[in-house]
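Re: Re: token formats

Sure, here are both.
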Amino acid sequence: MNMLYNSDSFAVVQFQIPGDAVVPEHSNLMRGGYEIVDKFARKEIYIEGALAESFKLGVQALIETSPSEDELDEYIGRFSALMQQPLVFH
């Protein structure tokens, strides 16, 4: 588990599955995924597979432009519409 991003609006955590758990026919997709938390809406989503790969590629492309925090939040905010899981603190 790696905290990749944490702003006033969002948090992004990466989860990775060890290499021995990779399914050969899907080896081109990242194993594991990302948990994205919208702090204001108090909702979260866990994405994996093709959606996680698309998220990663979008972030990598954005990073090449030296984005501001607002620009990163705007990109991550595109995934807020998918969030259905309410955020629960333990």
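Second one below.
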Amino acid sequence: MRRVLSIIVLLAAGYAPAWAEQEAEYLAVFMQGKKVGHAIHVRAVEGDEVTTSEEVSITISRLGIPITVRMTETSVETTTGRPLRFESVQFLGAMKMTVSGTVRDDGVVEVTNSSMGMQQKSTMDWPEGAVMAEGLRRMTLEKGLTPGAEYRMRIFNAGIMQAIDVVVSIGAKQEVDLLGRVVKLTEVTSTLVMPGAGRVSSTSYVDDDMRALKSNMLIAGIDVEMISCARQFALGDNDVLELIGAMFIDSPAPLRDPRSASAITYWLGPTDAEEFTIPTMDNQQAERLDDGTIKLVVRPVPSPAGGTFPYEGDDRALLEAVAPTRFLQSDRKEIIELARKAVGDARDAAEAARRIETFVADYIDDKNLSVGYASAAEVAASRQGDCTEFAVLTAALCRAVGIPAQVVVGVAYVDDFAGHQGFGGHAWAQAYIAGRWVGLDAAFKSGGRGGYGPSHIALAAGNGDPAEFFNIAGALGRFKIERLEVEQRR
């Protein structure tokens, strides 16, 4: 849910209104037709600086447990649109994370990550050609709303700390219903493109001042709508949306003891005209057929014997997979201590990774859905969460002892989860051992489902940051499993 919200905020920022100073715009947020929250956009001009803030707050239910996720993004730019500073504050259930940055004259960004009273400082280069809210406002006003026009831009989003390429297409004016108020607005389609992650599109309806008064998008198979309205309605009571069912994909047949299978072949068919992407990785091979169907063979890499750690090579991708990040704080004292406790006297990477998986399966003793999305350090302190918390802690402990590891998101089969049978949204980890990526699923192991297996379909892998999981929003809900074949172990 936390990753989904990041993308909702990014799309909501697609057309910054040409507001006057201090004017605020309120929008109601609907998911699956139910009001679940609000958005507030504010723009203020003081001297040569423009401050734009955008807040989105959403409350959803998972198995009857309400979770409120809130993000506030603030950008400070010159009146000409040059970026100066930014801040993203994310409330993920009970967790809070802040990222702030200052853009120096030489293009270097000084970044501060804050969580649980701890700060982490780093630097990065400002993405070439990227703009924030005011720069975007000026570009859109300059390009106008000529029907049939199409242009590209790069938008920097502090929530995911990345610039996203956006293709903008201008449509015709049409009458649009704004909760009973019908007005003539121009249709604008914004398509976000990320390499290897497909596309996510939103359709906005804007007035002549570029104010987006209504937006529609499909995020991870969920219909999301934002509509301009009175403050009282936007901030008023929300409906209850149970999200678990929306994150499931039907299985064409029940899987009898998938742990006994050596491989499963899936034929994935599109549910709409939008293209979806399934990655090829060590544990799965994807092939797009002529009719648009994807043939996916999931054959888990057997847990190898041996493998040395800590990693001492120079492969850039593996060095990245062993480094600490803002969600996988493998350099924190408490994480290092837990990792050493988990590994014990293990001398090879395979045994160390297995011990970490078992340790995390037992360590998180409060298995619940009340946590929006927590970092490894937060999980180490709280010992609670669901699959994402198992995954980030597993990956962080592996990295703490020098084993390259990533967080993987996708779907996995369950025969009964709160009355649902099929492939539900899931997260796990993978560790690089003896030259191959090996799947680790402490959440399934803890729940008696045996750990990682061929009933797991990966959609993305990375450091646990939102930008790296864009593919789950672009693919989930856009394919169905038309058939599958199980290959049993011999």
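The chain has two domains: 2-242, 258-488. Residues 258-488 form a domain with the C8orf32 fold fold (CATH 3.10.620.30).
- S.
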